Known about the structure:
Layout: H1 5-12, E1 16-20, H2 25-36, E2 40-45, E3 59-61, H3 67-74, E4 81-84, H4 91-96, H5 98-115, E5 121-126, H6 149-166, E6 172-177, E7 179-181, H7 199-208, E8 214-217, E9 229-230, E10 232-234, H8 235-250, E11 256-260, E12 266-267, H9 268-279, E13 285-288, E14 297-298, H10 303-309, H11 318-331
Helix pairs in contact: 1-8, 2-8, 3-5, 5-6, 7-9, 7-11, 9-11
Amino acid sequence: MVATASLSCENAATMKVLVTGGCGYIGSATARYLRENGVDVHVIDNLSEGHRAAWDGPLEVLDLLDRDALHAWLKGQSFDGVIHFAARCYVGESVTQPVRYWRANTVPVIHLCEALEGVPFVLSSTCATYGEPETERLREDHPQFPVNPYGATKLSAERLLKDRSAVDQGKCALLRYFNAAGASTCGHYGEAHDPETHLIPLAVWAALGSGQRLSVFGSDWPTPDGTCIRDYIHVDDLAQAHFQALQRLSSGGASDAWNLGTGNGFSVREILDAVEAATGKPVPHDEGPRREGDPARLIADSTKARSELGWQPLYENAAEVVETAVRWHQQHPSGYAS
Ligand SMILES: NC(=O)c1ccc[n+]([C@@H]2O[C@H](COP(=O)([O-])OP(=O)(O)OC[C@H]3O[C@@H](n4cnc5c(N)ncnc54)[C@H](O)[C@@H]3O)[C@@H](O)[C@H]2O)c1
């Protein structure tokens, strides 16, 4: 059954949902989105990467790796769904610290599943589970051969949730994001990672003079302007999809995977142009060699999410996404610290 926005709102009023990593970038945007739509949201976060100021609702500061503490907190509580964002998310770090990544990105899923049998589970997954693209746009049935430990840990979490679903221990929605980007339109919430590795914040900081010169990894890719092409999806559009996926599971829909990207690719150079237009300043940058493991293009085919979830991204153009990020960084030069 396809969840529509209106159906979602009716059902949401009675829903109690656990959001892990709800003080992080995408988790906090989703927690706020759910709350605005009538959901009773409870966040768990250990604040290792997240920010207390990103979420002003119920928060349990707890490490999901601490099985006893997690199970003790969950005991006697009942949730209509769990949305699991908490993870380590740096591809490069996952290559140098694989054991840490396997632990951080798989053990919490096990701990949650042990305590939440039967509860619908929405997982933050990633296009990194696909590995090297074989097609111009990636569909959900594209082969999954991740080329780094980060992608492999997320694929394992997907597999665990599929196995759990197969024996009726709880349905799952596996949401594979492409490049999350942008900030809330109100300008109060945005991306604040440390270290920051994502192109848009790094380019904005470079333009505003609050960060280093940007390194562009390769200008000889087989793309029209020689730089890598990615699919930038606004964080609020991701939030919308989580709400719809949860509604779909709650209203009888089967476990499945959905890509979350706009389907529009933008090159690094086009993003720098957008940052320059939005800030009115040049982006100081150097063109360096290619980075190992980077595909030339990563673009979603998100037909399935649009048709089955009723998902309608509001931001289809990266320039609009960049504008929201610029506003956030201009108003919060030190992130949540400001
Ligand atoms: N940002 C992207 O472009 C992107 C793309 C694809 C997938 N994802 C996935 O989306 C999710 C959220 O990404 P993000 O950019 O918001 O990351 P983030 O680092 O901003 O948020 C993660 C949150 O989880 C918390 N956390 C981490 N480990 C924890 C633990 N053991 N116990 C409790 N809390 C813990 C952190 O403190 C943080 O608040 C991640 O699972 C990531 O893999 C992100």
